[in-house]
User: Which sequence fits this backbone?
């Protein structure tokens, strides 16, 4: 087995391990398991309860599905493997942590109503670290480094008195789907939970809608990114070294949306062609956009014109 395969299956095991811990905890407690556990808290006090067996069955079923997906992804060794394995490992780790924590706190308190979560509320958040490790473990450069991309320019160089503008746009469906789900959460949270949680979810909903339609504008001032007419990203042309067209995948940049990675920053709404800008500091900025060729030519011509 190659090193890449070992790293890939090790990442996949991070989905299996929390599931095994969940099962072992169930048998370790045995007859000590309470009939009902506190499963949801408002602050430190429980405000939601579940039957222990039902809660366990749901957590185990979802975790097993995640394990199967992780095994299939590892066996296929697809380019999207790191992203999928991060999702499956976070799912199983979160479910295992929540169930074990709910049972432990209920047993310690004596009754579900007296269970207090306190700082233990941060424990499920730690499951994200498992996902980060699962994402980082696979060899994401197994196809070798890419050769330098071409940096085309306009057929006719720009003179100092000429002005040129290029505008491109890309739309995506996933932000609308995510927004629909978030709206439901906002309404439910506003009705049944703390108002400040609903406010946070509402702000998140507005942020997600920004990626439903993104416009890229290239002119002598630089590369601008806007949503619904509001510009929220600007790269001055003086900070640009070159630009290229490249086919990118969200998995290579950590997912969809606005991503910050060690290699650079990206605005990814889909897989496919994108403008990839190399900055003077060596970092990259990528944005998926329809028909980016002319935009790249203009960027490089503006850089040459100084």
Assistant:
């Amino acid at each position: 087995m190659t090193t890449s395969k070992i790293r890939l299956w090790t990442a996949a095991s991070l989905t299996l391990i929390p599931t095994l811990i969940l099962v072992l905890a169930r048998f370790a407690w045995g007859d000590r398991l309470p009939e009902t556990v506190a499963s949801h808290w408002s602050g430190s006090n429980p405000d939601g309860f579940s039957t222990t067996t039902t809660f366990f069955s749901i957590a185990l079923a979802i975790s097993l599905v995640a394990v199967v997906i992780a095994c299939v992804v590892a066996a296929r060794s697809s380019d999207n493997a790191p992203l999928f394995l991060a999702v499956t490992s976070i799912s199983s780790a979160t479910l295992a942590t929540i169930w074990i924590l709910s049972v432990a706190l209920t047993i310690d308190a004596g009754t579900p109503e007296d269970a207090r979560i306190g700082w233990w509320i941060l424990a499920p958040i730690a499951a994200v670290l498992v996902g980060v490790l699962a994402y980082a473990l696979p060899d994401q450069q197994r196809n070798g480094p890419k050769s330098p991309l071409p940096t085309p320019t306009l057929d006719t160089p720009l003179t100092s008195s000429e002005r040129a503008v290029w505008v491109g746009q890309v739309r995506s469906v996933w932000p609308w789907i995510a927004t629909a789900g978030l709206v439901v959460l906002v309404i439910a949270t506003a009705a049944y939970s703390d108002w400040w949680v609903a406010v946070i979810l509402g702000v998140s909903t507005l942020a997600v809608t920004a990626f439903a339609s993104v416009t890229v504008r290239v002119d002598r001032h630089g590369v601008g990114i806007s949503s619904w007419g509001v510009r929220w990203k600007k790269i001055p042309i003086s900070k640009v070294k070159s630009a290229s067209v490249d086919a990118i995948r969200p998995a290579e940049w950590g997912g969809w949306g606005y991503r910050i990675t060690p290699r650079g920053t990206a605005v990814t709404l889909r897989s496919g062609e994108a403008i990839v800008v190399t900055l003077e500091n060596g970092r990259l900025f990528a944005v998926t956009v329809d028909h980016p060729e002319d935009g790249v030519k203009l960027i490089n011509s503006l850089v040459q014109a100084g």
In short: Residues 3-136 form one domain.
